[in-house]
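re: the backbone from monday

yeah here it is again, tokenized this time
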């Protein structure tokens, strides 16, 4: 017979609340959202795995069928988890939704373990920003990464360095910007409060090493793409600061976009209860003379991240060049929710008042956790989806971007390999292949490596073929930085076993 302790009962309750916040995902189909590419990305990631391209870097059908190195720059962590469910037998759509539901539940449980407070879990779980990421923006990787953070902090706090290493590494390959945000909070937290310096440094370095296969090429090869377009025009951060009214007061909800100025078509809100209850907790702690260094740190961290969402922080954004890649200052609402929830968890109430606060929080925010439009029969239009966000990571070897899908008839194509047979009867010919160049594609004709040109229009690979029968094969190889990054990750994986052995000892 299973004995349920009060802690187990609370965890079961959190699981049920997690299902409540994501119950709209449990029906067939999928909702409308700003980022429609997740199903396409998962399908392409699946193709990579089936082709043996591990780690996945170049995908064959993106960019209107010309292909480009999507997962060399776009963090694959979220899709690698969804891929597990897809391999089990779930559809692409259901695999994504399963991960979203599990992520919401997991994040809430993580906050509970970290704070030992059901109220803190509810505030984090039902924060409007969580609903925005799922149902408005469709920012699934960011949602996934944000809900990993409580577990990372918890494992460091409990000095479970094997798990802290694994989870931090996974965060780094799930959402780069969230990883950078966390480090601003995590590093001082570790060195001020945990003070297990040697093991902390080993865990951090091993995490960086495990994620190196993605982070190093993404950083050092970004100049080979049009990634700079992601910080210009609409995506310039100056267009997307939040106002105090939006952050603290507004109850507006919309399914549109973040726009220039204070009038946005989507909500940019911390959540009324998400800041009001932490404020009450601070008043309570002040009266009880229980304001300590950790509470001050939580408060300072939350205020700093909230400050970054406001235009008064422009001087920080301008002084740190990498900040432009965050694009939307209101992203920092997500990371601010964690210290706010932890502060709220410090308030001590009887069960009646605690239940009232939880009930009010859910009632105020549950209506946000729903879709604008639900597609019961999702039309997976690969040609259309492949061209969305084409300029984000397009290799900059051509002068233009394609505008329509190209068919690859007569070509056997994998994510990291292309082959075809061409018989040239009269005279030598130049063949432009439906493949955009990115280092390190190599061309073989009749098993002999052959030089090639890069077509100036789109940056396609162009080869000269001689009269006769030509077996043409293109293969993608690693560049030196990718090889080095893979080696670092493999060495770090081996070192991880030493951490296990060290912890056991």
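seq for it, each position gets an aa:
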């Amino acid at each position: 017979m299973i004995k349920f302790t009060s802690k187990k009962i609370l965890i079961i309750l959190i699981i049920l609340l997690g299902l409540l916040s994501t119950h709209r995902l449990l029906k067939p189909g999928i909702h409308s959202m700003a980022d429609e590419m997740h199903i396409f990305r998962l399908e392409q990631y699946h193709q990579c795995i089936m082709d043996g391209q591990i780690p996945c870097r170049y995908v064959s059908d993106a960019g209107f069928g010309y292909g480009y190195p999507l997962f060399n720059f776009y963090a694959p962590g979220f899709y690698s988890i969804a891929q597990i469910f897809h391999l089990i037998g779930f559809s692409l759509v259901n695999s994504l939704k399963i991960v979203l539901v599990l992520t919401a539940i997991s994040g809430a449980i993580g906050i509970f373990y970290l704070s030992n407070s059901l109220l803190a879990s509810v505030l984090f779980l039902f924060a409007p920003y969580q609903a925005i990421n799922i149902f408005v923006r469709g920012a699934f990787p960011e949602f996934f990464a944000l809900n990993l953070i409580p577990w990372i902090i918890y494992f460091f706090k409990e000095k479970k360095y094997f798990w802290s290493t694994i989870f931090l590494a996974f965060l780094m390959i799930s959402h780069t910007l969230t990883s950078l945000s966390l480090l601003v909070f995590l590093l001082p937290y570790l060195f001020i409060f945990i003070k297990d310096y040697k093991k902390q440094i080993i865990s951090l370095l091993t995490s960086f090493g495990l994620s190196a296969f993605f982070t190093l090429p993404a950083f050092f090869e970004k100049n080979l793409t049009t990634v700079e377009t992601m910080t210009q025009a609409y995506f310039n951060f100056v267009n997307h600061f939040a106002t105090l009214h939006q952050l603290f007061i507004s109850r507006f909800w919309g399914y549109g976009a973040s726009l220039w100025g204070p009038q946005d078509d989507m909500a940019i809100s911390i959540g009324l209860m998400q800041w009001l209850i932490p404020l009450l907790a601070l008043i309570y702690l002040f009266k009880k003379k229980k304001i300590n260094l950790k509470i001050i740190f939580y408060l300072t961290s939350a205020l700093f991240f909230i400050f970054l969402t406001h235009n008064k922080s422009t001087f920080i954004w301008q002084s740190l060049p990498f900040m432009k890649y965050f694009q939307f200052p209101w992203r920092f609402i997500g990371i601010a929710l964690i210290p706010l929830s932890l502060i709220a968890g410090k308030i001590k109430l009887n069960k009646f008042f605690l239940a009232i606060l939880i009930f009010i929080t859910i009632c105020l925010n549950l209506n946000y956790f729903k879709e604008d439009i639900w597609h019961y029969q999702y039309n997976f239009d690969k040609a259309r989806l492949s061209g969305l966000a084409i300029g984000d990571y397009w290799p900059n070897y051509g002068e233009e971007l394609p505008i329509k899908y190209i068919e690859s008839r007569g070509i056997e194509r994998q994510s990291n390999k292309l082959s075809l047979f061409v018989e040239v009867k009269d005279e030598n010919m130049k063949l432009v292949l439906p493949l955009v160049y990115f280092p390190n594609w190599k061309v073989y004709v009749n098993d002999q490596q052959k030089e090639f040109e890069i077509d100036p229009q789109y940056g396609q690979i162009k080869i000269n073929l001689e009269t006769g029968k030509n077996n043409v094969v293109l293969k993608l190889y690693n560049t030196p930085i990718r090889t080095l990054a893979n080696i670092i990750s493999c060495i770090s994986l081996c070192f991880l076993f030493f951490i296990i052995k060290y912890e056991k000892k």
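The first helix runs from residue 6 to 21. The mean pLDDT is 94.
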